[in-house]
Amino acid sequence: MRPVDRYLDPDSTVRYVAKELYETIADLPIICPHGHVDPALFADPDYRFSSPTDLFITPDHYVLRMLYSQGIKLEELGILQKPATYEPPNSRAIWQTFADHYYLFRGTPSGIWIQDSLATIFDVDEKLSAENGQAIYEYISKKLQKPEYAPRQLYKRFNIELLCTTDAATDSLVHHQAIQASGWDGHILPTFRPDALLDVAHPDWRQEIDKLNNILGMEIGSYGLFIEALENRRVFFKTMGCTATDQSVLSPFTTELSANEAGEIFQQALRGEISADNGRRFTGHMLLEMARMSIEDGLVMQLHVGTYRNHNQTIFDRFGTDMGGDIPVQAEFTRNLAPLLQKYGNDPRLTIIIFTLDETTYARELAPLAGHYPALKLGAPWWFHDSLNGIGRYLDQVMETAGIYNPVGFNDDTRAFPSIPVRHDVWRRATCSWLGRLVVQGVVDMEDGSEMAYEMAYGLAKKGYELE
User: Is the entire prediction scored with pTM above 0.85?
Assistant: First the structure.
């Protein structure tokens, strides 16, 4: 059995208070306002996960990157090359490779998530190892065939109130349409992600424009029509329940271009003659346009900053994206966001939620900015930092300047559906430990601590993403 007070502060006095706080919020519904779970899981009421491998290994880039770092080939983990030139190992063999190397995850966030998922979802209290790998595989496989382990049933078991997916601006949202048409009472919403259309310097950009042309039945031959097309797609997403957009950028650079400048750069992109600098300027300008559109249509704007995508070119060329080769980089916000915030940051109709992989900006830039501009909110510690230690560092650096009401609580940002309740539970335990120290130190009393725990677990996400 997993200890009920796991991950709480080791100091006995703080631990006692933290446990009291945690008990008041442990059973609150889960809000998942940003993530990458495939909506196809919920479109078919009879969908079943095919194997433990499909749950814990194949979709999880945390797992892939750790195993690859120790010399395990992605081919051994069932990842196919582009194009596939070989038959991948069967699921049992992949699971055994994972079990043989499970020790690599000792002390890591992935180790916590996997072990707790095995214990709380599948009643596997035994530690995974080379010796018991096949027995645990067989045990989980049998459970996955039961109706109660279908994604829709797990959604209810996990006490999820709402789950948002991330969907390309050109997505037909066919799975979301199927979910809604089925009459199921689960709350699965799309999120509008226009990245592929905003990065005009990307080699595949013209293909994305062609997709947009086909969807809308028109030829987007000008910047003005491009803006109209984006607005059109946002309207469609809103009809499907969308409440937020999401952009991922290497740098939070923003700038305002004149209509003529933007139009000329757009024409350069259509001709395939665009420079990297003009591509950067156009994307920076489009972030202002996304903010303007959010003011007009009410969609919350998310901005994820600081990821050098596909750093390992060899792996990217052979296997594609999301193979664990994304690396954090430094980011500067105060100057880069100035054009955006000076134009729109004082507008109460706008909400911009910033996420970063550069922890050094928390106290120096992001907390002071969010502690001033009404439109700016802080996303949770993200990706490499949504760990016990990362959560603690985030709270220590952000809260004294921004308070707890300018951040927006937690989101899991995961493709691995079974890890969702565990990730939220780790956040709740970590925040209760942090709040417990404040109570013991006399910074806040228990009444305030309880209210803060509720907001950090549930209320802030619901308010920040305008889900109330």
Answer: yes
